[in-house]
Write a structure and sequence with these properties.
The structure is a homodimer.
Chain A (H helix, E strand, L loop, with lengths): L1 H18 L11 H16 L2 H13 L7 H17 L2 E14 L3 E5 L5 E3 L1 E3 L11 E8 L2 H6 L9 E4 L14 H16 L4 E5 L25 E4 L1 H12 L5 E6 L2 E14 L4 E11 L9 H21 L4 E8 L13 H7 L3 H5 L1 E6 L7 E5 L8 H10 L5 E2 L12 H5 L6 E4 L4 H4 L12 H19 L11 H4 L2
Helix pairs in contact in A: 1-11, 2-11, 2-14, 3-4, 3-8, 8-14, 11-14
């Protein structure tokens, strides 16, 4: 209810603002820009570009692990795709990377009745010895429980954290508490003396497909072999322990790292009157190795690329719209390997960076956008009112929690001071699929994909065909960063 | 509507029949038996025996491939479980079997952008050479299309049948048209000269988990390596072909057969007044190797065992109720290997067989029973009216299509003349899980499992605590078999 009331007042305020547009208030949205955004929004709902892009990408190249030949080939293809669509200054920006290959892996419950469990090594996890690691399983319900046991007390054992299934939430907030375990778990387990680390997958589904994801380096590497068990397998192991069994596991993995390169693919729709002012639309090209990266994050590239293409067809807006398909989002380790977001930031001169006027990232699947977020200082502005008016008809409401950080791809430029917007997608089923073999094209709902394109096209057009200074709208606390 | 009207007339007829029960019509149901069936039905809804059995079975033993040590160990455990529950004459009936082990398998899409596809060898499929089989993929939409090409015309190629996803139906009728392809496909492909056979999984889900299942021997073995692709992988391969690519695949498999034994586990609830008259409740102990066989068919054992146990607690009915957990349902080849149903039939003397008065099989998951079927001649009988009355309150209606064959386990005794009843389960989601890694305990809904137990307990009690001659109720056409 609170939201509805608020939206109604925003909308009526927006209509009033339109009535006085002739007065030429600073940073007001022109009636023409609003009309154009509405038309683009409706055209986007009918457009097939996004579905075409993500279909070709995932079908032709399959999985695209960061730094792999398939990520490199997909990047070259995507650059050609952008050129064919009419993007300007299409370029590939390479950077060095420590890649990671899964190899083979297995988990066997030992004893009188051996059972095969379905596992996936965590990203950047080290290999086991060839014969595997064998040990008794010691279970913890939380990371804190594992942290609480004495150092060295798990010698020869396998540390197992089962914190339960991820709780599905519209905003994806069930993810954070569990990724902490994935990131820090192997390091903590090593400190306690464990021979290996396993955990219940960070996921909300109950399918026999583990969720991989990167774990954290300690002193330049992941200190232990680390694995995710699928939900049903974690339930099986925990249930066996609840029955009083003391299971022993044998874990094998041939995972390894290697020197390689990744790349960002960049294409521009140059601005009509202020080409030096850039709005960056980000997503990532790489995927995990298990699926074909349709929702994570082929969809993001499809949405942003289609949005820019629709604007191009209308005629460029005042400012430049830049689409970046970042390389190496998934496996980047801050301590020793690159990622596309950092490489892009480093390529910018201070003047270029200052002319990055706004940015947003699409990296949360292909389900519908339900809210938009703007810098805190933008609340109540004419821009916010225009955005609310244009986005409401496709089910997108103002977010009470402004998006101020972006994701891993645009994170570096946001940290460097570029204002950020958010178009929040429904994440209720995202963590059923995320980082699993099941992240495939058939999971994309074309109607919801089109709604994403509509939201991006409309909001970005409003920002790009204006002279709004989003930097001036940042709240005092972050304005000086 | 037709069904509702019919049920209403059946029910009112049943009530009339009850009103004249004192007249002692032959084969009428006693009011006491009906009351007992109703009470047992309601007790079953509160019982935890079925869930306890299937939880222990699937958790302690995991997958139970026919003839494997885990099937053998699970059978020994189940016999102990039956004894502990008070079953009499609990025995293990062994028989020889040609078992099959999957080993390792893989499918790689070759070319500039290699991709890993998720496959499972079909049951009893032969291995590839160690280096695998490589060839161009030739697609067919139906088995008939494959049958229509000239013999020898697929030399060096891989025959691929993509007949689309299985259509989910309440009665499971989407399965038949596709299992034909799985059974006959490798033989037909061999005749055409193909080097291997692949098909879209026989399944209704779109998860990256292939559905295995047995394929047919020709001259004593499966003539080709045969594989099922998961739904998303089949869509990927077919889409690539729709884009004009001519994909080549490399397939590997180390599958092999071996000599072993399997066994039926048999336990009785001896009849109070006619212990020589036997009603057999069937299900199977073995499972496919990929999952833990919770719905196929741990649930069936749980349902039938719990039904008999509930009757035992009340005091035995007139006739003997025999629970058989059959071995080796899944991989039996008529031409050269055993199955539990055949072994049981062969163990019976002609007199014993004649005293098998009724039989039913639970082998279609754990979702609710929606209909009951009786021999055609039973329609309109007092027994049918009593059954309709007792089962209607738990949502079970008379089936318009009487069950006259049973499944693979009771099939041999049914062929030999034993009358059969059916309690038809909702199969809408059964083929999402059937024969995949995802057939695990968490897929069982405890409430629906209990409803199954209630339906079995009530119907079997009515039959077991009566003198109804079901053999006399068979229609003329099959009565003489």
């Amino acid at each position: 209810m609170v939201r509805s009331v608020r939206l109604a007042s925003l909308l009526s305020a927006g209509v009033c603002a339109l009535a006085v547009l002739g007065a030429g208030a600073a940073q007001a949205q022109s009636a023409g820009a609003i009309r154009a955004a509405e038309q683009l929004r409706d055209q986007a709902l009918q457009s097939n570009i996004a579905l075409d892009y993500v279909t070709q990408l995932t079908t032709r190249f399959g999985a695209r692990p960061a730094g792999s030949p398939s990520e490199q080939a997909a990047a070259a293809w995507a650059a050609d795709y952008m050129r064919a669509q009419g993007f300007k200054n299409v370029r590939i920006q390479e950077f060095p990377l420590v890649g990671w290959e899964r190899g083979e892996e297995s988990a066997t419950l030992l004893g009188a009745n051996p059972q095969h469990l379905v596992v996936a090594a965590l990203g950047h996890s080290v290999a086991t010895p060839a014969a595997g690691v064998e040990g008794e399983v010691v279970r913890f319900r939380t990371l804190e429980e594992l942290q609480a046991v004495p150092d060295g007390s798990l010698r020869g054992k396998i540390a197992y954290v089962d914190a339960g299934q991820l709780i599905p939430m519209q905003d994806g907030s069930g993810y954070g508490p569990l990724t902490r375990i994935r990131g820090a778990g192997p390091g903590v387990a090593a400190q306690k003396g464990a021979a290996a680390f396993i955990m219940r997958s960070v996921g909300s589904d109950m399918h026999r497909m583990p969720h991989t994801g990167t774990t954290r380096y300690i002193d330049g590497k992941v200190p232990l072999p680390g694995f995710a068990l699928s939900g049903p397998d974690a339930s099986q192991l925990s249930r066996l322990m609840d029955m009083g069994e003391k299971p022993r596991l044998r874990l094998t993995s041939t995972a390894h790292t290697y020197e390689t390169k990744s790349q960002n693919v960049i294409g521009d729709l140059p601005g009509r009157t202020h080409p030096e002012q850039v709005i960056v639309l980000g997503s990532h090209m790489d995927s995990w190795d298990l699926g074909t990266g349709a929702i994570d994050d082929g969809a993001g590239g499809a949405i942003t690329l289609a949005a820019a293409k629709l604007m191009m067809e209308r005629g460029a807006p005042a400012r430049t719209v830049r689409v970046i398909l970042y390389g190496s989002e998934e496996v980047a380790q801050p301590t020793n390997t690159g990622n596309g977001g950092g490489a892009y930031l480093r390529s910018l001169s201070p003047d270029e960076l200052k002319n990055h006027v706004f940015t947003g990232e699409s990296d949360f699947g292909a389900d519908r956008v339900y809210a938009f977020g703007l810098p805190v200082g933008a609340q109540g502005s004419d821009f916010a009112k225009a955005a609310a008016r244009v986005l409401y008809p496709i089910g997108v409401l103002p977010s009470p929690d402004p998006e101020l950080h972006g994701g891993a791809d645009i994170g570096p430029i946001v940290e460097a001071g570029v204002p950020v917007f958010g178009l929040n997608q429904d994440g209720t089923r995202y963590f059923d699929l995320h980082h699993t073999a099941d992240d495939t094209l058939d999971k994309i709902d074309p109607k919801q994909l089109s709604q994403n394109v509509a939201a991006w096209t409309a909001l970005v057009w409003l920002a790009a065909d204006s002279d709004v200074d989003f930097r001036a709208m940042r709240p005092a606390a972050t304005a000086g960063r």
